[in-house]
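Supplementary notes for students who missed Thursday's class. We covered one full example, reproduced here. Read the sequence, then the structure, then the short commentary at the end.
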Amino acid sequence: MWTSGKKANPSITYTIIEKEPLTLLDKVQFQTKNKTKSIIGYDKFNNDQFIWRGKGLLKCFSSKWHIVYLNSDILIIQFSSTLVTKAGMDILIKDKHQAHEYQEQLQNQPSAFNLTEATMQDFQWLT
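Structure (token representation):
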């Protein structure tokens, strides 16, 4: 979704709205044609994975995702396809100024982030 060039500057915010079962408000913001747009949904934890379901008109869309790696600065998730997006992986970095540093670390030592060299060779970075 991000590599086509139609949507730019993505920002993803997760907010805990319920602890049992763990449920997150998932807000994705991005720029398209000089406008800020949002995709809002809910992520409910179930059997070692999250199930995302869109809010409002997007309620008929769902996707499954799980955490590949997490620390205080970086979150790596792998997600299934939806009716409109292919399966893939997102690497979310808290401070965009650290993006280049993490990109080098991920490419040089992917196993430290629970990834393979092949995954990193195929990975498309946003610039």
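Commentary. The first helix runs from residue 99 to 108. The helical segments are 99-108, 117-122. If anything here is unclear, bring it to office hours.
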